[in-house]
Design brief:
This protein has eleven helices and three strands, in the order αβααβαααβααααα. It has 308 residues and is an all-alpha fold.
Length: 308
């Protein structure tokens, strides 16, 4: 279906995060700091894992993919948000809105599935260590990563397909600072109950089930670790705790946004801001700060390049 034939609206006006100039200035500086400090840190994580032969375990392979996903995710909303802060009229074309929405859910869905894969990796490593090298072989790891990228694509394309079939012929003001499913659907010139229900099942229910599944799996892992007396007990607890922290940062806001009817709440913009701008840049850093091997390799890499 051609976009021009499915809608009269050719652009959307973004109302932004806030109308307060003071708050906008604070948010602008905050995002700029994150981009100048933490984003290069994510690229350093990727470079460290790629260049250090000792970091070849599946855990570090998945951590590198997490850094790639989060770094890519951070380019979807924040750069345009910075530009909009300096513009009087915040406008995004219909095609640009759909594109932003697609990549938002493509990468977000892929990251959610990656956390499931990382939980499976930790379960095999801690609860079934004798089978670890057999199950988590390089081929299996690449297949899992390919599957999560494909899963994110399918998850996103379903939502885009449903939205492209909606007519937009009236108001074009999005009460947000980016294009997302709840705000876009509310502007359609038709009854969207069925579409909203499908969106809740596609995003909300799957997100909630993944979250509960991950919570249960880590509870089992931690219970198994606490009963054991192995030397790596503290390290296993530290790694699993890190995974749980990132899991809450990833799924908590998503559950709040997508598992309820698409009605505006006062906290929506704040939750969306942390979910799309702040947390993606922080997730790999949380892993790094709690992983001694990566920190040591990173220091060696920096020292080697400074000496050179």
């Amino acid at each position: 279906m051609e976009i021009e034939n499915s809608t009269v609206v050719t652009e959307f006006v973004l109302l932004g995060l806030t109308q307060s100039q003071d708050i906008q200035l604070v948010v602008f500086v905050l995002i700029l700091i994150f981009y100048l400090i933490i984003l290069p840190g994510n690229f350093l994580i990727i470079l460290t894992i790629r260049s250090d032969p000792s970091l070849t375990a599946p855990l570090y392979f998945f951590l590198g993919n997490l850094a790639v996903l989060d770094a890519s995710y951070s380019f979807i909303v924040a750069p345009r948000m910075l530009v909009d802060f300096l513009s009087e009229k915040k406008v995004i074309s219909y095609r640009g809105c759909i594109t932003q929405l697609f990549f938002l859910h493509f990468l977000g869905g892929g990251e959610g599935l990656l956390l499931v894969v990382m939980a499976f990796d930790r379960y095999i490593a801690i609860c079934r260590p004798l089978y670890y090298l057999t199950v988590m072989n390089p081929t299996a790891c690449y297949v899992m990563v390919l599957a999560l990228w494909l899963g994110g694509f399918v998850h996103s394309i379903i939502q885009v397909f449903l939205i492209l079939h909606l007519p937009f012929c009236g108001p074009n003001q999005l009460d947000n600072f980016f294009c997302d499913v709840p705000q876009v659907i509310k502007l359609a010139c038709t009854n969207t109950f069925v579409v909203e229900l499908l969106m809740v099942f596609n995003s909300g229910l799957l997100t909630l089930l993944c979250f509960l599944g991950l919570l249960t799996s880590y509870a089992i892992i931690l219970f198994h670790v606490c009963r054991s007396s192995s030397e790596g007990k503290n390290k296993a607890v530290s790694i699993c705790t890190t995974h749980v922290i990132v899991m809450f940062l990833m799924f908590g806001p998503a559950i709040f946004i997508y598992t309820r009817p698409f009605r505006a709440l006062p906290a929506d913009k704040v939750v969306s801001f942390f979910h799309t701008v702040i947390f993606p840049l922080m997730n790999p850093m949380i892993y790094t700060l709690r992983n001694q091997e990566v920190k040591t390799s990173m220091k060696k890499l920096l020292i080697r390049h400074m000496v050179c």
